[in-house]
Amino acid sequence: MLSVAVITVLCLFPLLRNDFTNWDDTYYVLDNRLLRGPAWIGIFTRPVVSNYHPLTVLSLAANFAISGTNPRSYLILDLLLHLLNVVLVFAFIYSISHRQRVVALLTALIFGIHPMHVESVAWVSERKDLLYTLFFLLSLIAYWKYLQTNRSTGYWACFLLFACSLLSKPAAIVLPLVLLLLDYWKERPFTRRVVLEKIPFFLVSGLFAVITLKLQSVTAMTSLDLYPFWVRLFFASYAIIVYLAWFFVPYPLSAFHPFPLPDHLGWTIYLSPIFLLALIFLIWHFRKNRLVVFGLLFFLINILLVLQLVPIGFTIVSERYTYVPYIGLAFLVTMIVTRNVRAKRFIPAVAGAVVLFSAFGFLSFKRTQVWKDSDSLWTDVINRYPDAPLPRAQRAQFNYSRAIMMEPTPAEPFFQRVIDDCSVAISNEADVSKTKGKKRDAKTHYMRGVAYSNLKQYEKALDDINACLSINPDDSEALYQRGTLLVNHYQKYAEALADFNRAIQINSEGKYYLNRSICHYKLGDMANAVADAQVASQKGVTIPENYRSILNAGR
After folding, report:
1. Average pLDDT over residues 166-171
2. 233 — phi, psi (to 5°)?
């Protein structure tokens, strides 16, 4: 087992040099006020990014106490949790395979270094994957011991660990079905007792399912009108086939696999039900083979919630969703291989395993570097999906954040990159805007407008800021930017004053008062100019010395 852990570390250690990304890490860590303190009541009462997972947030709060917004401690803990899960996979498979050490080791190694699992470990926001899996596996191990000993302590340990798994990520709601699958694997008679002992699990699962649907229906759920139910059935069959194929050939990989356009689903999606029917026939054909049924159903049960029957998020498939499901496939494959490798085929089998694990290890090593920062992450996605709006907007946001912190001249190439990415995002956003409303489109117009302004292309800047405000009229920053453009470059002081007034009503920032003060001064209202400058100064804004002199002279 030590050798498996060492190989896993060697394949994944580059992630320890990575930074946060702007894909949810901002919400989970950088701007998450629940971590400050921490806010104990808030952690257990408030959702984060449309999920209720207080134990995950609590673990992030522990990291924040150690290193603040330095990513190192977060990534170290992620790697340690993954290693612990590798050990638990070994323990679980060792138990249910009647102590077949080779099967357990190979399954644990596949789990540890599979390229599809890098996303769950290298992405700080996916701490929930690691933590829920930890408790999920512990719960399954406890239940297996309960089946062996029939002691109630094992049953209640299983239930308690199940609750902890749910409090780490709602995906654990499928655990009761996996418990029934373990009953089947154990050849336990399907009696009234078997059903009754699962009722508490199903009740808690139902509660968390309702809570999750309620939270995600507000911001995370894709419009059901955009993709009717018959299309979502195609999505589900496509996802199953893709996840199965990527278990054996994890290529091409990407952190983001967008939904197809509603009127261009593609032939792979239309043909996927044929392959799904073949899989169903395979399960039926081997229905008396407990290994095949157990391995495939373990995979299908754990992948069930993310098949986009209810579209959640921006992606049709996601690599992180395979973190637990692939345990079933890995167990099935390793059991079949070890059963069928005879003495004469031992050397070729070992050579094949070395090639396979070397390929997996190399791909995982390379994937950790994709997650180095937001630029490398989204550039990798854009290389795969050059026209997808979200990756373009996310990379633009990263370069925008860098540019606004620089002096004007060195910032120019970064602002140009912002314009280039935002232009692609905006041109393609209209096709998919129904999925998440228009807020992302508004932000993209805003960033491009500010970039144009910094490159002294003021007409284009004003057009983009106007477009942003047409989508989101209450964007105080956009109102501030438009007011500033109108004062500095168009001398439309009355229109600018209206923008500053509205911005201050929404969010009374000091810089808004300063620019409104200048606007009042330009309109000849010295009293209000002085008053707003005083408020700006009280809010910590430095008043330019030349403007301060003008105000003092006019009193």
Report:
1. 96
2. -65, -40
